[in-house]
Amino acid sequence: MAQVGINTTTPDPSSMLDIQSTDKGLLIPRMTLVERGNIPNPSQGLMVYQTDNTPGFYYFNGSTWNAIAVAEADKWTFDGNNMYNANSSNVGIGTTAPDELLHVSGTSVGTGAHLGNLFAGVWETNSAYAVITHNDVKFDTNGYALIQRNDGTTFLNSVAGKKLGLRIGNSEKITILSDGKVGIGTTAPTAKLEVNGTLVVGNITDNADVSMIMQNNWVTYSNGWSFPEYYKDKLGRVHLQGLIKNGTLGNYATILPAGYRPIRSRIFTVETKGGERCRVDVRYSGGVFISQGCDNDWVSLEGISFRAER
User: Fold this and answer.
1) Is residue 132 a contact partner of residue 144, using CB atoms and an 8 Å limit?
2) Which residue of 97, 155, 164, 169 is 20 to 30 Å from 50, comparing CA positions?
3) Chain segment 151-191, per-residue pLDDT in tens
C-alpha cells in the first residue's frame, strides 16, 4: 500500500501519512469531556484534544482515557545530565501536597541522598554498611557519623583527631576524645575515665582471697594464724595479709601476678618479731621484698595496700 503525502511528493516510506509545512500545523479533533466520553467504541491509540476540565491531549489505551503529560514552562531546568526544579517550589514524590523542598511519601531505594549538608547512603568502602554523615566529610572513608551493618551492628564515629560528644538539651554530657579518654561531666578528660561529679558504684564485690606462692623458704607461720594471701577490692586496691616466717631476708617472699601489682614500686613498714617495725617493698614487677631489717621468726603482711596497675 502506497504512502500518502500532503504538501510533498515524496512521503517518508516509514509513514502512512506524511504532512509537511513550514507555516502550518496539524489540528486534531477538539471536543469537550462529555463529547469525548460519547465516542462509540474508541480504538486503542485514539487521540483527541479536550477543551474543558483540564484541557489537553488525551489518548485511549484500550480501557481508559489518559492525559499526555506536558511539562509546564520554567518548572524544571536541565543542565547537562542534571535536572533541578527552577521555580523555588516544593517537590513531592508520592504526594501531591509537598510541605518541604523535597517531600517523599513512601520508601526510597538508592546508594545515597544529599539533603542540605546531610549525606545518607551506602558506605563507599563497604556496601554492607549504610552511613549518615556531613556532606563535606562523606568522601573521608573514616569520616562517617553513624554507620550500621546489614546484620544490625551499629557504630557512632568521629573523624580522626576529632572528639565524639553525647548531648542532652544541646549540653554535652559525655565526651570521648580522639585518644580514647572519656569524660563524664567534663569536656577535657585527662585520664581513661574522668568523672566530674558524684560517682556511685554498685553491685561490685571484692575479689576472692588468693593464696600466695611463697619463695626463698618463706612459709605460713603456723596453723591457726592468717595465711599469706592477697585480694583486690571493688575500688581496684590490692590488699596483702598473713603471717610468714623462716625465709631468706633481703629477698622476695612471693611474686604478685599481673593485675595485682602497683604502678610504681612502693615501700611499707610492717610488724615483725618483738613488735618491731621493718621495711617491706612491693615492686612494680610484683615482687614482695622482705628487707634485712626484719626478723625471719615472723613477719606480718597486714596493712600492705595499694592501687593496682591499670
Assistant:
1) yes
2) 97
3) 889 988 888 888 999 989 999 999 999 999 999 999 999 98
Question: Quick count: other Cβ atoms within 10 Å of Cβ 244?
Answer: 26
Q: Which long-range contacts (CB under 8 A, 24 or more apart) does 62-65 make?
A: 65/36
Distance CA 296, CA 273 (A): 8
17 CB-near residues (< 8 Å, 6+ apart): 3, 4, 5, 6, 11
Convert the pLDDT of each residue in 55-68 to its tens digit: 999 999 999 999 98
- Cβ atoms of residues 131 and 143 within 8 Å: no
Report the pLDDT averaged over residues 272-296. 96
Looking only at the bridges linking them, the beta strands covering 129-134 and 118-122 are antiparallel
> In the CATH scheme, what is the code of domain 210-307?
2.60.40.1830
Mean of all residue pLDDT scores within the chain? 88
Q: Count Cβ neighbours within 10 Å for each residue of 201-231 and write b for 16 or more, e otherwise.
A: eeeeeeeeeeebebeeebebbeeeeeebbbe
Q: Reading across the β-sheet that carries 251-255, which strands appear in turn?
A: 251-255, 287-290, 277-282, 266-271
State residue 139's pLDDT score.
58
Cell of 117: 549538608
Contacts of residue 301, Cβ cutoff 8 Å, sequence gap at least 6:
228, 240, 241, 242, 243, 244, 270, 280, 288
The DSSP output letter for 91 is E
The 8-class DSSP code of residue 294 comes to S
What's 239's DSSP letter?
Answer: E
